[in-house]
Specification:
243 residues, alpha/beta, Glycerol-3-phosphate (1)-acyltransferase, seven-stranded mixed β-sheet, 9 helices, 7 strands
């Protein structure tokens, strides 16, 4: 019974999320002058949505170094990816942030307007998404990227892609590393979004360090070596307890 009630609450909350996205796209965005205002609106709305998730005890969030995380500016943010809710939580915490999204979301009837306006759709060529990411960084935004590309559990060690290193190399912006964990599977890959479990899921978020890109570029001026070393540093930091 408890599982059914929690699932019903999650369905209702994500219904609010979808309707809210339409409301923002058609009734708020048209009256805002620039992207910065639109990002602020989205961040505040997602902050409210995460508050609802916590208020209804669907999830609880514990954060180490919360002020450090909230004050990340103009950086590439890489994070572990245990849940579909990760990006909502991160963007609710960190102002002026965007991220990469699956191409299919550009066709989602509820989200496509917001996605096309503020996010970076995954593209078929490296140049397209790389240039878009650097453009956002040059405008002063943070770019959030899950370097493993897929949701995964704490005991899994998926292959780390080199996208973050590529963006850092071209933009010369620093990389901030965050480690997110959940107390049990919640909105995991191949898991229905309404499957909320029988108890409150705990999200732990830890600030795990920063890579100074300028310093690393001086140390590793050769392109391939730089990307290899940066990817190794990300892997070691985010998966330091893995074999």
């Amino acid at each position: 019974m408890k599982k059914f009630i929690r699932s019903t609450i999650v369905i209702g909350l994500f219904g609010i999320f979808g309707i809210g996205a339409l409301f923002i796209q058609y009734l708020i965005f048209p009256f805002q002058k620039n992207e910065r205002e639109k990002y602020n609106t989205l961040q505040k709305s997602w902050e409210f949505f995460v508050w609802l998730l916590q208020k209804t005890e669907i999830l609880k969030i514990e954060i180490s170094n919360i002020e450090k995380i909230k004050n990340i500016k103009n950086s590439i943010i890489v994070s572990t990816h245990p849940s579909f809710a990760d990006i909502i939580i991160l963007m609710s915490l960190i102002p002026n942030s965007t991220c990469f999204v699956a191409e299919r979301l550009t066709k989602n009837p509820f989200l496509k307007g917001v996605v096309k306006t503020l996010f970076i759709p995954e593209a078929s060529t490296i140049d397209v998404w790389l240039n878009k990411a650097c453009e956002k960084l040059n405008e002063g935004f943070n770019v959030i990227i899950f370097p493993m590309g897929i949701r995964h559990r704490e005991f899994e060690t998926p292959k780390i892609r080199r996208g973050a290193a590529l963006i850092a190399q071209k933009s010369e912006r620093n990389i901030v590393m965050l480690n997110m964990k959940t107390s049990f599977d919640f909105l995991q890959i191949n898991q229905p979004f309404y499957q909320a479990g029988e108890e409150t899921v705990l999200f732990n978020i830890d600030y795990s360090g920063e890579i100074n890109t300028t310093s690393e570029l001086r140390k590793y001026p050769e392109d391939v070596t730089f990307r290899t070393q940066i990817t190794k540093q990300i892997t070691k930091t985010l998966y330091k307890n893995k074999k």
